[in-house]
Amino acid sequence: MLPKFDAAKALFDEYGLDVSRETYDKMEQYAAFLVDYNEKVNLTAVTEGSEILRKHFLDSVLLAKYGNIPENASLLDIGSGAGFPGVPLALVRQDLHITLLDSLNKRIVFLQQLCELLGCSYTAMHGRAELAAKTPEMREKFDVVTARAVAAMPTLAEYSLPFVKVGGTWIAMKGPNEPIKPALQAIRMLGGSLEDTIEYTLPGGDARVIYVVKKISQTPTKYPRNSGQIKQKPL
User: Fold this and answer.
1) Which of 58, 132, 152, 181 could form a disulfide with 127 if both were Cys (CB 3.0 to 4.6 A apart)?
2) Mind listing the pLDDT tens digit for each residue in 33-84?
3) DSSP 8-state class, residue 183
4) Number of C-beta neighbours around residue 100 at 10 A
5) Per CATH, the architecture of 62-232 is what?
6) In whole angstroms, what is the distance from residue 87 CA to residue 82 CA?
7) What gap in Å lies between CA 146 and CA 100, rounded to an integer?
8) Is 209 helix (H, G, I), strand (E, B) or coil?
9) Mind listing the pLDDT tens digit for each residue in 70-125?
10) Is the pLDDT of residue 149 over 80?
């Protein structure tokens, strides 16, 4: 399914990442399970082994390098879908306490079965971000919140920052054509401050950008609004 271990290791080595044989074997299991499951539930358009390694696994694991995620952090992955970046992070950072949140239960079923297959310890949770962020169990409870290509930045800020503890971090993984400027007002309103912008390129030339936002004050209780308000009038 994936390229051979030596080729995969060389790819990760190029980016200063050390991937063990054990982690590679679990990625191989993950990829095969994903492609098989994808035939009955649409999870990803990327189904070729080398592309899965490059666009999904490498891209996800780079978050551990560029995101500066603290040891033993609680991490929420919003709109986790097929499990990226949350599950690869769980494979390479076993110290993290990871929760995967998705609004479609069929994706959660996949993630739960994947967890059993790989022997991971993450939690897969069915729910809408704008509702879950209003609950005492979830609101401002996470050291790190991440999301990968879920929504436009102003909208994604409203979905994400209410989950982040004051002093914690929101990390948004985006393509190169979505600037942070239109979201800066929303970030400030929600208690955040842009800390870093990290640009990198995957093998093959695919450009990526990570926006790192520090949570410096509590999010006002009226946020997030309901989904209709968020879509009709982004902050």
Assistant:
1) 132
2) 999 999 999 999 999 999 999 999 999 999 999 998 999 999 999 999 999 9
3) G
4) 27
5) 3-Layer(aba) Sandwich (3.40)
6) 9
7) 10
8) strand
9) 999 999 999 999 999 999 999 999 999 999 999 999 999 999 999 999 999 999 99
10) no
- Mean pLDDT of the region 2-20: 95
Residue 8: count of CB within 10 angstroms of its CB: 23
3-state SS, one letter per residue, for 127-162: CCHHHHCCCCCCCCCEEEEEEECCCCHHHHHHHHHH
Report residue 200: phi and psi, to 5°: -150, 170
The C-alpha atoms of residue 55 and residue 127 are separated, in whole angstroms, by 26
Please give the angle made by the CA atoms of 102, 175 and 77, to the nearest 5 degrees.
Answer: 25
Domain ranges of the chain: 62-232
223 vs 128: CA distance, rounded Å: 14
User: Global pTM?
Assistant: 0.95
User: Residue 169 — φ and ψ, nearest 5°?
Assistant: -135, 140
Nearest to 215 by CA among 152, 144, 153, 149: 144
